Amino acid sequence: MTTAPAKPEAPRPIRAKQRPGDAIFSASTVVAGSLILVVLAAVAIFLVAQSIPAFTAGSDDLKGGAPNFWAYVGPLVFGTVWAAFLALLIAVPLAIGIALFISHYAPRKLAQGLGYIIDLLAAVPSVVFGLWGITVLAPFVQPFWSTLVDLFGWFPLFAGPVSGTGRTILTVAIVLAVMILPIVTALCREIFLQTPKLHEEAALALGATRWEMIRTAVLPFGRPGIVSASMLGLGRALGETMAVAMVLSPQVLISFALLQSTNPTTIAANIALNFPEAHGVGVNVLIATGLILFVITFAVNFIARAIVNRRKAFSGAN
Amino acid sequence: MSTITTPPPATKAPIANTLTTGILPKPVPWILLGVCWLIVGAVFGILLAAGVNDSFNIIGAIFFGTVLWVIVNYIVSRSYEGARPAMNRFVTSLVSLAFLVALLPLISLLFTTISNGIPRFDLSFFSGSMRNVVGEGGGALHAIVGTLEITGMATLISVPVGLLTAIYLVEYGRGHLARGITFLVDVMTGIPSIVAGLFAFAFFALILNQPGIRFGFGGAVALSVLMIPVVVRSSEEMLKLVPNELREASYALGVPKWLTIVKVVLPTSIAGITTGVMLAISRVIGETAPLLIIAGFTQSMNYNLFNERMMTLPVFVYTQYANQGIPAEAYIDRAWAGALTLVVIVMLLNLIARIVAKVFSPKLGR
């Protein structure tokens, strides 16, 4: 055995002392962070695991006598997307207006307070929105709907006969629009506030009116933000349960008519209404529809966030 | 040949202030608004006198008066100031109206909740459960206890996880894992609440092998799935606000990194983190759908999170409304009283959170 001659020790780079406290603390933060990935994966895995029996379910296990699972879930997907789309159609122009009002029109001192007021809407529980929709909004809008049907009944969307209670999908869309208004407004407001001050001042210096300044400087800058804010709002509207479940009377069908008393219902509302009494494969079927809702909202949110993040890279605001 | 043009005779009259010429005086739009309301009000009054309407519709008068004002204001401005300023005025009025329109549902919602909730907002509502109650009477104590326990449990789960994740993202996270977590946290904020409930149900039904499982702890887990991303987001923002000089000063004194975080970074940002947590609580405390699925509903008091069904306030409101008995009035009143309780809790949480943020936040500005 030969021992290597001891070399003169080279000066080692200075390293921080490794303390056990540091190791434990940083490890626990890593674990917590990874837990989020695990939870998301678990959501997908357990939903898939529980919904496998549903994909082979026959007409005996499906409500409404659909021949297979896909025929059962088709109208529900349609209803979900249709209601969310209508809500978006109402909410986005309104939200852009409110965001502009708070960011560029309201007096500076008031602006933050006005933002809080809009945020209060987000804090109202959805079940209260449902109660409000059915007891206040539906009777309030019913006369308008019947006037619409009288005047524009020839247009397929407004085809009669009008619902006597006002509990139609357009009413639901209004409730949903009010519910997603805060998040869309908040995001649009953030984006509008990020507009480079120099662009705005340059537009004003060239003699633009306030509206022309907004049209030429603020809106082009904020367009990707508006798109992604709308998609996040869409994600919310897709998954909203109680307002739809309470305001609509459940039907499983595909119909574009906005004001009739038979309306397509949504996945989430269908689950909430049927889950308490479901048993056997019925539970699996409902979980499988939930899985499809999860996939749709995940895709929508994924795209929206991807747009926001790409935007961040070259916005110059941070 | 050059023609000689006579110069225009110099006007003697003093030129008006050039900054304000060609612009409508400030009070004009407001005067127009009043005139429009009066006109539409008069039309409604005539209709009333003619017997077409049976009562004076004040909301309709204000609504159509405002619409008329938007148009009249545009026309007046266009004829006096020109097309571009007129467009500016038009958009200004539309944008301001958008804000007012958004306030209407909030006001209407608060008004109806308070006026319908007050009749049953009494002592017996807060002192009894619904056990053996048919028809009138009864209370929501079991639902309030359930809500407090489940939300409390969800907070206990979410705050450590969310806070540690935020610390990881701000203080340690570099590279792919951190970026992936940031992205997925954002995506996770968009999980529909009912899917979170289904997840908790699928998870516990498989793990505990009970196909019809209903218990409170599952509800807490479902709420945590919804709450964690909110806590992460808000805590992350607050931790980022802590100035780097504080951290560097602490390192320079030889303090280890983890003690720097615990003793310097967290105390500096604790007010903001508290605000974020309270806002997250106020968001999940009103969730109905997940609790309907995994916590179920019951008429009796249940203090045990880990056993049997558990009532919560949002589910109480929903079931009182959905399964009305006789007399229906009693059930609807209870539903509204529950809704009022919920709204009061949520508004209080929001208010306290804002006050905490205002009063206790460190003054960073110099």
TrEMBL record, chain A:
SUPFAM superfamilies: MetI-like (SSF161098). Signal peptide: none annotated. It is found in: Cell membrane. The keyword Transmembrane helix applies. Residues 77-304 form the ABC transmembrane type-1 domain. Its main location: membrane. It comes from the Bacteria. One of its GO terms (molecular function) is phosphate transmembrane transporter activity. The chain crosses the membrane at residues 23-49, 69-102, 114-145, 165-188, 241-261, 281-304. PROSITE patterns: ABC_TM1 (PS50928). Keywords: Cell membrane, Membrane, Phosphate transport, Transmembrane, Transmembrane helix, Transport. The keyword NADP does not apply. GO terms for biological process: phosphate ion transport. It is a multi-pass membrane protein. Belongs to the binding-protein-dependent transport system permease family. CysTW subfamily. This is Phosphate transport system permease protein. It comes from Herbiconiux oxytropis. The lineage of its organism: Bacteria, Bacillati, Actinomycetota, Actinomycetes, Micrococcales. The gene is pstC.
UniProtKB/TrEMBL annotation, chain B:
InterPro entries: MetI-like, MetI-like_sf, Phosphate_PstA, Phosphate_transprt_permease. Residues 144-353 form the ABC transmembrane type-1 domain. It is found in: Cell membrane. Pfam families: BPD_transp_1. It is a multi-pass membrane protein. It comes from the Bacteria. One of its GO terms (molecular function) is phosphate transmembrane transporter activity. Keywords: Cell membrane, Membrane, Phosphate transport, Transmembrane, Transmembrane helix, Transport. GO terms for cellular component: plasma membrane. Its main location: membrane. CDD domains: TM_PBP2 (cd06261). The chain crosses the membrane at residues 30-50, 56-76, 97-119, 139-169, 181-207, 213-232, 264-285, 335-357. GO terms for biological process: phosphate ion transmembrane transport. Part of the binding-protein-dependent transport system for phosphate; probably responsible for the translocation of the substrate across the membrane. Belongs to the binding-protein-dependent transport system permease family. CysTW subfamily. This is Phosphate transport system permease protein PstA. It comes from Herbiconiux oxytropis.
